[in-house]
């Protein structure tokens, strides 16, 4: 009888222990809602830093030279001059929140960025991966990865063409 009671107690502890485990992966969380709000703000050109911790660091296509939240917003404002319109597509957005083995909370998202270059009305679509680390409901790290080659090459080509046009119109001495 003691063995049966002991086995039932151990089984009950194991079952209750498994039910109270923290969520390590989800596609629905307050942190994901924060990132969705941040994406909506980007699309609306609302450059709000309230979601970021004051000490947050943002890295776009690099692991060096982080930007503060206000510098990241300035980055977006400055790049906006290249586009007549831009934003993330509303379809096929994927979000997940994970808690790492070290207890860090991260939200990952995969999005399709779309823009139209102001200089020549060329439409551009770029897949983008963004990942955000959260502490106490605030973003403390942001990493963004995408391939800007098409945009950079087009802008360089347009600049070279403009420079060639200027050389042709300069009077000869």
Automatic annotation (TrEMBL):
Signal peptide feature range: 1-21
Instruction: Print the keywords alphabetically.
Output: Signal
Q: Which Gene3D superfamilies match?
A: 3.10.450.50
InterPro entries from the entry? NTF2-like_dom_sf
- Record-given protein name: SnoaL-like domain-containing protein
- Which organism is this protein's natural source? Flagellimonas zhangzhouensis
């Amino acid at each position: 009888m003691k063995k049966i009671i002991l086995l039932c107690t151990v089984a009950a502890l194991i079952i209750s222990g498994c039910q109270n485990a923290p969520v390590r992966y989800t596609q629905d969380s307050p942190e994901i809602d924060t990132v969705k709000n941040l994406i909506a703000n980007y699309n609306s050109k609302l450059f709000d830093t309230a979601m970021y911790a004051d000490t947050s660091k943002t890295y776009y296509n690099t692991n060096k030279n982080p930007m503060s939240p206000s510098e990241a917003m300035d980055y977006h404002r400055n790049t906006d001059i290249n586009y007549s319109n831009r934003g993330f597509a509303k379809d096929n957005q994927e979000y997940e929140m994970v808690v790492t083995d070290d207890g860090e909370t991260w939200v990952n998202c995969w999005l399709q960025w779309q823009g139209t270059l102001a200089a020549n009305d060329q439409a551009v679509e770029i897949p983008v991966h963004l990942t955000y680390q959260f502490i106490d409901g605030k973003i403390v790290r942001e990493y963004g990865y995408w391939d800007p080659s098409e945009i950079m090459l087009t802008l360089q080509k347009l600049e070279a063409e403009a420079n060639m046009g200027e050389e042709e119109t300069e009077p000869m001495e």
